[in-house]
Amino acid sequence: MVKIVFESHDGSERTELELSPGGSVMEAAAANNIDGILADCGGSMVCGTCHAFVSPEWFEKLPEQSEMESALLEYVPDPQPNARLCCQLEVSDAIDGITFTLPESQR
Amino acid sequence: MNSTVNDHIPDHVPADLVVSYDYHGDPRLTNEVHASLQVLHDEAPPVFYTPRNGGHWVVTRFDEIKKVVEDYEVFSAKEMQIPRIENPPYFIPLNVDPPNNIPYRQALMPAFSPKAIKALEAKIRQWAGEIIDNALAKGDGFDFIQEVASVYPVSIFMELMGMPMDRLWEFRNLSDEFFSTNDQQKIHQLSGQIIMAMTEILEQKKAAPADDLMSHILNIKVKGEPISLEEMQNMCFLLFLGGMDTVANVTGYSFRQLANMPELQQRLHDNPADIAKFTDEAIRMFGVISNPRIVAKDAEVFGVKFKKDDMVLCLLPISGRDDRKNGNPHVFDIDRSKEDGHTLTFSSGPHMCLGSFLARSEIRILVEEWFKRVARYEIVPGTELGYRTGFSLALTELPLNTVKS
């Protein structure tokens, strides 16, 4: 099982998910009704509404961003260097224990 | 208007999937367009075939619509007229399937992104305030559609594009006519007119560039190369139709709904922070655009056999009213949970509405400015409201009486 934590922007709410590997982090968030992940475009990488922040340590470990992902992340309401699109990350043992901090707003 | 198009049912469509539905004026429809349309959820299978308008598939429920609009390999966006016509209008990037749509979309994203729209908020608010003030100055019985819903998003859009404001009604009428017809000759004539107007403005921007979207479009590069005039025209054509008609129509339906909910009016008036929730709920209940697709290759999806070149119409406006997806879907409830608030009003997938962030902000800000000025309002009693159907649903009048705050 892969453990993933979603934390609200102000840190007041934490949701811990235990997931089987496979599928994207966005799909797991949507299936578990994580409030701050909207995923308007369903994973087609045209909206940016599934972005979240990770620690610098985790950011280093994650697979590199595509040009398109980094372009989209420039246009979210509050761009940050350690943001990722959850639709581009696979639920796998490689991210076991990661925490995603949700943005104040997705749009 | 489409009496010349014959009914048609191809051989591969089984009889139990045939239900008559005329998207250009179905007998089921009333001016409560969405409520009358949602009966299709019960009366017909989630994916059915209508013989009307030359024959096409209709998809009515959330999960099925989502699958169709996201699966571009089977359901291509390259052609969108139902019935099919010779040389159909070509919109960029809407009619371009991935991956070729991406560079165009990326070129437009800076203007329509959440970040850009946040920066535009003060300007949007100014338009909202001015337009509401002008409308209220006309006194009781003013037509909200004519004076506010038609003018407000279109003014913002035209300013964003850099279009001359004195052509507002000319452009608004062109888009209204475009969405009112499925006649081949008429579509070509109107497309020509719209493209000519856009070209004229593009040429003016070329001579005198400004800080606006049409000047930006002149400088777009795709894979390092400038785009052709035809590509620019087809982008402007799409933006024109998207900007002229959609928010105007969602706003009209939303204000009609709210007119009949005095307690909610009071709540929004007293608690402006709740207006964002109102906006989300209005968008769930009152989508206006339906998405056509063309089947790109023979395929079996949802246990249904689709044949290459079949046309498919996804009824996005009732996607949020699907009782298999949302609890109590027919109730307007701004406090509903995320779990019961699903909608595809802006579609999904690679062609999801580029203007969705702008649209959401426009509606929220309009309602905020409205309740700064209006304590409560009602539809002029005894009015029979007109409406328009087709790919884009519209309410054509909404006369209001208001009590100032």
Automatic annotation (TrEMBL), chain A:
UniProt keyword Transcription regulation, yes or no: no
InterPro entries found in the cross-reference section: 2Fe-2S_ferredoxin-like_sf (IPR036010), 2Fe-2S_ferredoxin-type (IPR001041), Adrenodoxin-like (IPR001055), Beta-grasp_dom_sf (IPR012675)
Name of the protein: (2Fe-2S)-binding protein
Domain 2Fe-2S ferredoxin-type: 2-106
PANTHER family from the UniProt entry: FERREDOXIN-2, MITOCHONDRIAL (PTHR23426:SF65), FERREDOXIN/ADRENODOXIN (PTHR23426)
Record's keyword terms, sorted: 2Fe-2S, Iron, Iron-sulfur, Metal-binding
Family indicated by similarity: Belongs to the adrenodoxin/putidaredoxin family.
One Pfam family of this chain: Fer2
Cofactors demanded by this protein: [2Fe-2S] cluster
UniProtKB/TrEMBL annotation, chain B:
InterPro entries: Cyt_P450 (IPR001128), Cyt_P450_B (IPR002397), Cyt_P450_CS (IPR017972), Cyt_P450_sf (IPR036396)
Superkingdom, taxonomy of origin: Bacteria
Keyword field: Heme, Iron, Metal-binding, Monooxygenase, Oxidoreductase
Keyword Iron in record: yes
Keyword set includes Oxidoreductase: yes
Family label: Belongs to the cytochrome P450 family.
Protein name: Cytochrome P450
Organism field: Spongiibacter thalassae
